[in-house]
Predict the 3D structure of the following.
Amino acid sequence: MVSYRQPGTVLTDRVFSVPLDHARPGGEQIEVFAREVVARGREPADLPWLVFLQGGPGFAAPRPVGRENWLDRALRDYRVLLLDQRGTGRSTPATRQTLARLPTAEAQAGYLAHFRADSIVADAELIRPQVTGGAPWSVLGQSFGGFCAVSYLSVAPGGLREVFITGGLPGLATATDDVYRLTYAVVAAKSRAHYARYPQDVAAARRVAAVLADRPAALPGGGSLTVQRFQELGHALGSSTGSHRLHYLLEDAFAGTELSDDFLYRAEESLRYGSAPLYALLHEACYAQGAPTRWAAHRVRAEFPEFDALAALGSDAPVLFTGEMVYPWVLEQDPALRPLAAAGELLAQRADWPVLYDAGQLARTDVPVAAAVYVDDMYVPTQLSLQTAAAIRGLRAWVTNEYEHDGLRVSNGAVLDRLIAMARGDV
């Protein structure tokens, strides 16, 4: 272990060996990296542990600088473990480079099938005794990290002292198609709200879409920007500043009659999957339980003709943006995914995904749980979150429109502070 200091904190890098397949503990091993953070001066203190599960899937834990954001509040009470979920960050990576060692697409897909919430929870339970000496720890799950926390409550509640969830209560037995039916409706509303805030963007987006409909643009990193990928820039609209950032991107879209280099570079930064290929490859799989997803977002999109950009260009309708949806064409359009396209298709057709949640166990849990549910959450449907909140025994839900999906990050600790108080019965 290596320790070092930042302003107000002491950090320790830790690496753990875990089985790729927890059903075969003696088989192939991978590494999981975690960063311990404690307030400076409290290093010797016997503090309870709080493990942070990042949103995603496929994103590494935050790289902190001092006591920024929610970490400042957490460090008042806890020793924090920032977990790079398997395949991300400094854990054994799962990318086009590392997966190239596997001889077939079938082998790649089989390998990637071990990177969902169930395996992440199994990693955490294997790591926990090495970190806490066997004591239960607290879990903070943001977005997909909340999905992992609910799975944790289902299969290993004895490892949990308390659970905090922000924007991450999943449907317990909801078909993937139904998830997208709900999210498409919210995304359409977010797009229209954006245009109400910035009416000049209606014409700006139509102009960009018209150029791309005539000829897709080459992106600096080697991918291509089609009309459909342009619409995917709406992914940001569910965050606190996303509408404003999208506006500034659109207002600088052209250099004369051509799409500007600045626009293409910034669009690529928002769209590329090179730093998180697992997000694209396993995004729908994080909902799957016993049935194939078969590119649910793509199929369900046909039920919402207002997202047809070419039809909008042929009328006076605005070009609507899409949200947290991954479409099959991205496997060929993104250079980081192209070598994994066949494996991605196999994952979309996979039918034997294990069940992630145990409704019976959740109904009898005695672990204190507090969850922030954001009204009109663009990424995790509020209706499903409220159903799940009612199904978890003793869960206290804070339903709020004060924050968007990124409330944990932008609230300067206020969201976490409220959840801690709720779990303790102080509010």
